[in-house]
């Protein structure tokens, strides 16, 4: 009986194919590392790992076809609402401040 965890010895026909696959994997890894170094990706990951995870999730979502889905529409609507909160709050505070200033001005006149 053969052990399933033991990798069989390379046959003479498969040896060149396996060697070519190993070289291709090494070349691909070197190319990816070169691109990461050129873009400064390694430094960005070290500086802000959670932001890079978020960016990776976003890129994966878009590449995976999630851009034109109902979920994306809901997320964009929620994002627009959340983005508008500071603007609405500032306007409400300006109106409240003007009202309080008016009340205080009337109180000083009396």
Task: Outline the structure in words.
It contains 4 helices and no strands. It folds into 2 domains: 10-66; 69-110. The radius of gyration is 30 Å and the shape is elongated. The protein is 79% helix and 0% strand. It has helices spanning 15-39, 41-47, 49-63, 70-109. The chain is mainly alpha-helical. It starts with 14 loop residues before the first helix and ends with a helix.
Short structural description:
Helix content is 79%, strand content 0%.
What structural class should be given to the helix and strand makeup? mainly alpha
Largest sheet: none
Mean pLDDT: 85
Instruction: Quickly count the helices.
Output: 4
Shape, please?
A: elongated
**Overall radius of gyration:** 30 Å
The parts where pLDDT drops under 50 for at least 5 residues are: none
Number of discrete domains: 2
Helix content: over 70%
């Amino acid at each position: 009986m053969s052990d399933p965890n033991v990798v069989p010895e390379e046959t003479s026909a498969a040896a060149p194919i396996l060697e070519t696959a190993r070289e291709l994997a090494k070349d691909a890894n070197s190319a990816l590392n070169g691109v990461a170094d050129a873009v400064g990706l390694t430094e960005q990951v070290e500086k802000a790992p959670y932001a890079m995870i978020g960016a990776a999730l976003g890129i994966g979502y878009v590449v995976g076809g999630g851009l034109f889905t109902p979920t994306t529409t809901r997320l964009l609507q929620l994002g627009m609402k959340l983005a508008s909160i500071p603007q609405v709050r500032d306007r409400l505070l300006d109106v409240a401040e003007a009202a309080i200033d008016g009340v205080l001005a009337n109180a000083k006149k009396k």
